[in-house]
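Figure 2 data, in text form.
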Amino acid sequence: MTKDEMMLGNKVPSNLAQVGVIVKYTFLEYLRSRRFFILLTIAVVIGTVFTFVVGYYRPAIFLSSELVFYSVWWGMTATYLVVLAGIFFGGDAISGEFQNRTGYFVLPNPIKRSTIYAGKWLAALIASSIILAVFAAIAMGNGMYHFGTGAPYQFGVSLLFSWFYLASALSFTFLLSSIFKSSSYSILVAAILFLFAFQIIQTFIANLVGIEPWFILTYGSQIIGNVLQIQYPENSVTIAEGLTIMAVYFVATVIIGLTLFNRREFT
């Protein structure tokens, strides 16, 4: 082996290559874990139940029109599926490095913490996107069966908004995971915030105080269902506002979460 070959063999991979390696092995870890198949099972079970109910009982709330079908099927469930994905894949993504002591083996290597953070986030996004895509495929299959046409463009827009919400939700849960060293705490706080606290605060502020809750992420996610309405609801969050809320949450939580991860020491 020549000197140049030895130097090339000892060369530290680029940051992009390191991100790719972390994405690969983190994603494979998700595929081998129970959480991925539990969430996939939840999505399939919900889709199967909807398929049976609509096919057998043919409720008018589903079959009155194609847009109403997707509004009920997707608009009322997609946000919850996104939240579950954020909790399942982001709740302990960083805190697990402290609790399981895996950071002791990774960080001594010539790799930046931002690279680890980005790789894990991308792996979580890919795993979550697969779950979302499976549920969307089930919805489209049923829609095409009952109406004989392709999905309306509003469904494609809502699916895109759901993916934006997914990115923001994952970034937020990664932030919580960077705050807590215990996976149990980070997962519990994420579940409480998304499933209960945000909605309670949003309702309280909107109905009792009379202020638009523009600073709550779940408020912005309402555009996912609103865009599937025959007429976009008045006095609700606009599409521009919803996308802005998601974007601000995404950027702010990524910066804060990564800063906390960079400053935290393994003791």
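Caption note: The chain has 14 helices and no strands.
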